[in-house]
Design goal:
single chain; about 90 residues; alpha+beta; two-stranded antiparallel sheet
């Protein structure tokens, strides 16, 4: 089959590279969010979200063979919690 591991017929999982902050791997089934989804959750614009990403305050992963980035939902929720406690700047 096209997108299956031939040994056990399991769907192939995309390989992700962690670029900044956070753990060294993405757990199977972990929810990844696009930039626009993070903007909605934070109630902030693109420039702000990219700024906190670049400062290392919000970890992200880069999709393989692509410039696309994704954010773990758990990291976004942790950022929101830190911001509510006054720790994220």
């Amino acid at each position: 089959m096209g997108n299956c591991d031939s040994e056990n017929d399991q769907p192939l999982q995309p390989r992700l590279t962690v670029v900044r902050g956070g753990a060294s791997a993405v757990k199977s089934g972990e929810s990844l969010l696009k930039l626009g989804e993070v903007m909605v959750l934070l109630g902030m614009g693109r420039t702000y979200v990219l700024s906190i990403k670049d400062k290392g305050l919000l970890p992200y992963v880069r999709m393989p063979n692509s410039r696309a980035i994704r954010f773990r939902r758990s990291d976004v929720e942790a950022f929101i919690a830190r911001a509510a406690a006054g720790e994220a700047r």
